[in-house]
């Protein structure tokens, strides 16, 4: 529903503009006390010079903090773009109705006492949404700390942290599901000199979601990088839409998604569901887009800062010049930990550099030693060679305090600037310690600066991951011909038949009723075969000698049929015999494949090695469905145990093509099966040696009933 | 040798005092230019007011930088405590001889051109050491950036970073194998307001080692925390001695040991050696002492800072109060990641707090919401309850910018100070954002302050690990009755016999020469048994039907003996038959145990699950030998696959007592076997169900020859 509303203009998230960039704002519950919740927004806007019209609403005052106030919303001289609602919960609904009648386009609600307290609060919140829909208004909150847009002097927030200082100019936006944490990010950003002019705290998200907030920030021409804090994604469509818009605009989203530790507690929907941590599903979704997920605010801001340079190197690799061998080792360690390649310099260039400076170690990291501080032309030559000969997409120079020592700094900065300007497409990072004024020339020249080289490596790796993500096309929206799943529980045989229509091979097996059939079928599927007496009345077949393993050749199959039927008749005289089940006897590497329907993101595929690997080590990889064979192959090879599939320690490599085809087909099946499909477990799948295929030995499909699915 | 020298006084590392806290210093190669290598130390000392006598040596000047100079070392008016040597490499030896003759007690050598350039440099360096030993002088370097001790105004360093600012007062020492990186740490510490008054850069370590430098810092009463940067430990005795002294003095060592990524490249000495990353061995050594190893300088300084409070909570647990639910989730995630427990508050206390403040969420983290900012008495009550009722060893309060807002800060700080003073043994950490002056009152009150709550969690966890390490007694030095290993290659049978003397059980097996013997032996070891034709001339026994599996009962064993001998005679007529090997047929969980002799730290034990676990997943744990059964059990249970041993997914739990006993006995064997023992591999070891023991199925012992061992 909301989507069509957003698509009215060319911008998808345009309907938030009245909220985030208002030309006029009413403050309902305006306070004369600049430290109260209804007073802070006015105080902040007065101090920062709001560019639009500010209209306090207060029934008892003619003026509030020196500007004319209005007794009631009805008395407002114009329909405000937005309203800040700071009245007790019980008065909020009437306020929204009045604002709607007045023609307000949006409102944000500080008040708490809604869905977060449960019970009546939930109903009260629903009533707000109803009212807003009727009046075609957008709502933020309730229970939100609000928003600010410093580029327009707009402060619709009561965050007390602003008392300490307003946001610095810059191009980083903040969207947060926690107001206190959003303000914390602002504080951290200020402390390290980063500008975050726009923040949205979404509160209870009765209408406007985190996804929409991210989307609006992405579409804002004043914002290059969006940072976000999420506890749970409540509306997946707007969230995914925001990720898509960000990808197209080449604007990265740096996301702190929390709640990893509580995820195991969620009730399991099925065997697969119990294995799939929701958090890993979330990571699988993000992997399709240009999103970097971080675990700490410091890391989030480091990466956001580096991203403000807007250089996202594709196929990233790191070359380093350093005055300290130790820093070189630290960076090598960190790069290996994070998977950022640091290939060596070409041998010819190494020889040439070694000639220029015999003390140097010109492999990569290129240690040109503190000697270059006495001959900065040499520093330029080495760095130019690193870029031109080494061809690294990213360059890190370690200078620490030497780079800001007054006797060296100005010339060093100039020398490096020349190198940088010749290669504007490279990400050029310097590890530097200095006061604000000391590092300012480097900042102005467009270098990315970090004190700690380890943090530099983390940020450089993130820029490369963004580059790769931007270079990869987004998954095309696909429509699927729906298939009809049977009603009721689905038997193993039925599950295998359903899947075989998608090309997913099970271990070949058939129940035959005479020796001739047995012989012909065995010849068809290939030897050796397993033969079992087929009877629903004999649960423990091996106890009556009803199972023959490793049956080779036509004669043995014929004999086997007669033997099994005879044993059945003799040893289980009351059982109804259906014949003999003949199956190809397969031994291969045990794998595990499955589908879990995520309540938010739809079907997600999981792959792992079978047995103890899946049960004890949880060595699993996830991907949102559908994906093609190449995607499946990537997924398969991403597990830790992948060497076992590739032929570790003298084993034969398995048929990864067949596994990948099967997994990709399973992902398509999951999409076509629709919302009734809850889970699929193929466990084990036997992967045979290359060229011999992969076969599911068991298949379990779980569905909801038609009525349940319709409700959900 | 060195140890006896150090033990002259009560302090083990006393012989470094003349170097690090000199009463008089000669600067040989003193320069009038304060930016040159021979000029910087003088310039720094003049600016900072060196407390001792400063004596420049310069043959061409009567004065250097305004103070009287001497033409030659011989002309010095007194024997200097130490000398700074800043002359070309070729002149260093003569300088050391002259200093020795003059009676100097120590010297540090800036000059490079020694062992780091190889060839003649190595010999030149050895000559320096000879000279110093003759004169009973201690030497630092050569190729060192030097030392400083700001507490005495002593600056024996040419680090250019000091131009930007001298170290702040404080109680953190720096010992570094890289001068540039030591200076980098100083710069980072200054930038975040941390005082690091003493630094030692060890350079080539021709005499004084990193270990001795750490040891001296630990023994210095002005230092509470030692930070260290290491590339490789060259002298293990002084290093371990320093760790021991630190443990006894309850002073933590925060260590950045680099070079993780290059370790795989080192040539393997044996199968086990190839699996044992030296880096993991190093970690295993550190685990015995109170050392925290970090991967980045930022983390190192965060932890060092927290340690300056000298509160090391044993059995650490974390209680949190927060004004932001989001920060609570972030901290819960981080604590779970790092293994820091956050148990819930007692239910009665939760109920009481909920009554005090209905909006609060008083479980743990205790979210008392931003409401408490209006009622700070409530903040105190909640925090007091967290400490008293919850009993957490560490407390984290999240206030972010709200904690430094002028309208709140002074009262909040006072309130928390009162709570803190009532519980001086708790580690009290506040997540706070503010300028230097804003946070100063909290610093003065002794709180540990972090901007980012994630960094706070890392530091709190480290304090707990230190507390546990200090509370644990150091491993007692043990002497071992040496055992004689046979000369030459050790056969599998011989290896098993050697180990069986230590109670390490192999799979029972014996070569028998008649059917009666076979029957008696099988009865002794228990059925089923495996029988194999015993002949060195039949390498592929199964090809001639020479292996019988799963032999049950006396008759079958007798028959088996005759069958195998007959087949041997018939199918391998030229082979010499030794009889038949009878072995107990064992199936259990496959494990892997081994010993690797580390060139520095001696024998190290390794444990893992067998097969693919050790080969592909490298799921291994290490520990320095020897250790007792409890230590072995800890080691065994520390692997990721431990659930497989404990009975995961319905399997029978294995006999961990037997495994632990075997591993502990192996560690004692390794110590008694002495330096000739290179490695032991028991692969596989079969662990049977509880009560049934563990048996090595194969044993390989590798040794060096007697002559080699004597050389090493």
TrEMBL record, chains A, B:
Q: Which residues cross the membrane?
A: none
Which Gene Ontology molecular function entries are recorded, alphabetically?
ligase activity
Q: Which InterPro entries would you find in this protein's record?
A: ATP-grasp (IPR011761), ATP_grasp_subdomain_1 (IPR013815), CoA-bd (IPR003781), NAD(P)-bd_dom_sf (IPR036291), Succ_CoA_lig_flav_dom (IPR032875), Succinyl-CoA_synth-like (IPR016102)
According to its UniProt record, what is one Pfam family this protein matches? Answer: CoA_binding_2
* Keyword set, alphabetical order: ATP-binding, Ligase, Nucleotide-binding
Q: Which PANTHER family match?
A: BLL6376 PROTEIN, COA BINDING DOMAIN CONTAINING PROTEIN
Q: What name appears for this protein in its UniProt entry?
A: Acetate--CoA ligase family protein
Which species is the source of this protein?
Answer: Stutzerimonas chloritidismutans
